[in-house]
Amino acid sequence: MSRLVVISNRVADPAKAAAGGLAVAMGDALRQTGGLWFGWSGTVTDGHAAAPAGHVHRTQAGKVTLATVDLDRADHDSYYAGYSNGVLWPVFHGRLDLANFDTGLAAGYRRVNQLLARRLLPLLAEDDILWVHDYHLIPLAAELRALGCRQRIGFFLHIPLPPPTLLAAIPEHAWLMRCLFAYDLMGLQTRQDVQHFERYVCEEAGGQTLGDGAFRAHGQRMVCRDFPIGIDVDGFMALAQGGASRDMYERMKHEYAQRRLLLGIDRLDYSKGLPQRLRAFRELLARHPEQRRRATLIQIGSPTREGLDAYADIRRELESLCGAINGDYGELDWMPVRYIHQTLPRDSIPGLCRAAAVGLVTPLRDGMNLVAKEYVAAQDPADPGVLVLSRFAGAAEQLHEALLVNPYDVHGTAAVVQQALHMPLHERRQRHQRLLQRVCEQDVHWWRKAFLSALKETRPQERRDRDWSKEREAGFGIPVPSMRQERPPLGLELPACPADALALDASRSVVSDR
Ligand code: GDG
């Protein structure tokens, strides 16, 4: 059986119980075959570290080898905060206004991907299967191929893939999308994401669809399909039976015995639609006075990417909104909003979800949103709460029986929350039963198996037979000219970059459908 090699920005010890869905899914797969999990160590070296940047640390966790690489400050800043979270994350979530298109950042992003490729290559065996995760690592396969890597490589994008008009706002879009063709299989969260990819390939990249999810462009064939990620339902339900979860449930039920609890659990990210959610809640209290002293919103906003301005801004905006709502509607013995800027222990989350009459999952844009699925899995089937879900979350493609809302429409969302609070028991049960069925059928284990069996079915023979040195000479993966000025990654030279390859990329960086 082939060994699985998982590559992601961060690496988690699969044996640790606190790990989230991705860690569970990957840990599961890696434990079966034995495997390698490779990525950034989480350490930024400052020149005085014990190991130099680029050093590979290896630890063994049962049958799984964890191999991680430290990054130096400049590389980390441009790769992680700069390009991944300052350009790709906002653009892929439709927030062009928040993207920083400083040209130097793309070079750092590429440099780190090259470094990771160089460090990974010597660790690979001939029949390994590689699974690369998320937007931090789009060019990794291209860099690996340029070094001679012939193994099957799959890529899963956890965030949405935007339509071509938005993608084309990224100055390096042609390079990024071309890099994707070095993968054998790309998995996206939704059918809509796949449609966006198809349009990009046909309208921007001069490529074509070959049927059955296959695409051809830049002389390469690859497969792109939707694989909606799920949660570890069994693990989550086991957590729900645990002491911490039960305690949380009892405490909340007692504390809010006379009230109706609404719940939001999100990373404090601008994509999650938190200010709009707060405004919808204020609208509910304004329009429906019977909800005052009754409906209480608990909003968990767990800290994330705090060094970035956009994240400091969203925090300030949220704090000010919560203060205003509590000031306007609160009473001595009732606060309408309880906002907590902390990360809750994972084992208390199912109990909190179960105690809430309404789960508010209203992102402005989201790849999938696992909280929606966790909320469903946590409910008491005999007396379930109601899921209010944004139509712009990937989960909306599967969870039809949730009450779908447009989170930008504050009045409309408030009306739907009111509907949720008044939904009769038989309707709540009916909706929940169908939702739970879907969450269980397409759980994280289903997702992992579906992706890996599709990857094994790809036909990489032509890729294996291909002379990649020619690709390299032709500038495979060579980005826009401005990136040539950057220093090479840690003792490595950038491959030569012929002028015609650059001309090709420049000619493609045109928005054709607007
Ligand atoms: C990306 C994509 C896609 C949240 N607060 C706390 C906490 N959480 C947990 C939730 C859930 C996870 O974090 C969040 O998952 P989401 O899917 O909602 O969102 P992202 O973090 O943005 O994830 C997303 C996902 O990747 C998977 O592909 O669905 O679209 O953006 O599990 O429960 N966990 C703890 N304390 C908290 O305060 N312990």
TrEMBL record:
Query: Which EC number(s) does the record attach to this protein?
Result: 2.4.1.15
Which SUPFAM superfamilies does this UniProt record tie to the protein? UDP-Glycosyltransferase/glycogen phosphorylase
Q: Which Gene3D superfamilies match?
A: Glycogen Phosphorylase B
Output this protein's name: Alpha,alpha-trehalose-phosphate synthase (UDP-forming)
UniProt cross-references to InterPro entries, sorted A to Z: Glyco_trans_20
Which stretches does UniProt call biased (Basic and acidic residues)? 460-474
- Can you supply a Gene Ontology BP term from the record? trehalose biosynthetic process
The UniProt entry's sequence similarity note says: Belongs to the glycosyltransferase 20 family.
* Species assigned in the record: Delftia acidovorans (strain DSM 14801 / SPH-1)
> Which residues does the annotated region (Disordered) include?
460-492
Q: What's a single GO MF annotation on this record? A: alpha,alpha-trehalose-phosphate synthase (UDP-forming) activity
Q: Does the keyword DNA repair apply?
A: no
Enumerate the UniProt keywords alphabetically: Glycosyltransferase, Transferase
